[in-house]
Structures are given as C-alpha cells and as structure tokens.
Amino acid sequence: MKAETSRFGAIEVEESSIIKMPRGPIGFEQYTSFVLVEHRPDTDFSWLQSTEESSLAFVVVDPSKFYADYEVEVSDADAEKLNLKSASDASVLVVLTVLSGSQITANLAAPIVINMKEMLGMQVILQDNRYPIKHPLVAIVEKCGEKTEEITAKAA
C-alpha cells in the first residue's frame, strides 16, 4: 500500500510492516496505525510514521544502543494488550524531541513497546522514577555521527 507523508512524500508500505496500536501515542491516541521509516542507513534513528495522518511522525531510537542499563518492565496488563508471550518478541523505542537549536531529548519514562511477531504496539508509562521524560541526547547524537541540524530540519 502507499502511505502519504509530509516528510518523505508517498512511500510504499508492506501490510506486514504496519504497527497497530490499540491506543495511539500519548496525545495522539486516535492514530493507531504506524510504520517505521529509516532516517538514513548510517544512523540508528527512525521515524514512527502514522499511516493515517501524513504530518504525524515521531523521531525514535532503540535505547539499548545507548543505555546498557535501561530496563523496561511492562506490566502484566500491558503485556496482555500487546499479546506478548516472551520478552524476546518485544522491541523498545523511545521518542526523541528536538528542541530549539541542537538540543535533543529522549523520553525514557514512556517508551513505545512493539510486539514484533504480532506488530502490535503501545506507549507505556514506566513506574520507575529513574527515567526522565526529557533526557538530554547531545553526547548520543555525536556518538552516532548524526547531524543535529538534519534531524531538526526533518522534525520541523
């Protein structure tokens, strides 16, 4: 199928790659169909692009690439909603926010968990106060070799 996006134009999307979210991301609960779009082949950043609203996309990253001790404990209720039978079926992404200039933060308190076998996802709120909503990412962005201006321009 084709999906219209404001950042990438029309993109071809495999039906099997569509992530269904029974409840969309916080603040966008009405949008329940997303696809991951690679930012660039040489970076770890992706876009969680809505297939329902062309202008709705979130910059996301797998936190395990940068935080070895980051742990996501999914409640039994959330695991049931995602039909998660094994932790190995889960993929975790965190949403990045591009602030003014080159400031980028990661929301470590509310990751997006995706059951990759069933392509079901949801944003979960962690009950662990170790993780902030706005964790600065300057060092991480430099580690990836990503130009902050590029992410900022696409996010705008």
Question: Would you write up a description of this structure?
Answer:
- The protein has helices at 76-81, 138-144, 148-155, and strands at 2-5, 9-12, 19-20, 33-38, 45-50, 57-61, 90-98, 104-106, 112-115, 120-123, 135-136.
- It is an alpha+beta fold.
- It has one domain: BH3618-like (Roll).
- The strands form 2 sheets. Strands 3, 4, 5, 6, 7, 8, 9, 10 and 11 form a 9-stranded antiparallel sheet that branches. Strands 1-2 form a two-stranded antiparallel ribbon.
- Strand 1 (2-5) and strand 2 (9-12) form a beta hairpin.
- The longest helix has 8 residues, at 148-155.
- The two termini are 26 Å apart.
- Mean pLDDT is 85; it is low at 139-156.
Which CATH top level class fits?
Answer: Mainly Beta
What is the ordering of alpha helices and beta strands? EEEEEEHEEEEEHH
Helical element count?
A: 3
Strand runs, count? 11
Distance between the termini: 26 Å
Helix content: 10-25%
- CATH fold-level label: BH3618-like
Poorly predicted sequence stretches spanning 5 or more consecutive residues: 139-156
How many domains?
1
| C-alpha-based Rg, rounded | 15 Å
Structural class: alpha+beta
CATH superfamily: BH3618-like
Q: State the shape.
A: globular
Report a brief summary of the structure.
This protein has 156 residues and is of the alpha+beta class. The chain is built from three helices and eleven strands, in the order ββββββαβββββαα.
Write the layout of secondary structure elements.
Elements: E1 2-5, E2 9-12, E3 19-20, E4 33-38, E5 45-50, E6 57-61, H1 76-81, E7 90-98, E8 104-106, E9 112-115, E10 120-123, E11 135-136, H2 138-144, H3 148-155
Antiparallel strand pairs: 1-2, 3-4, 4-5, 5-6, 6-7, 7-8, 7-9, 8-11, 9-10
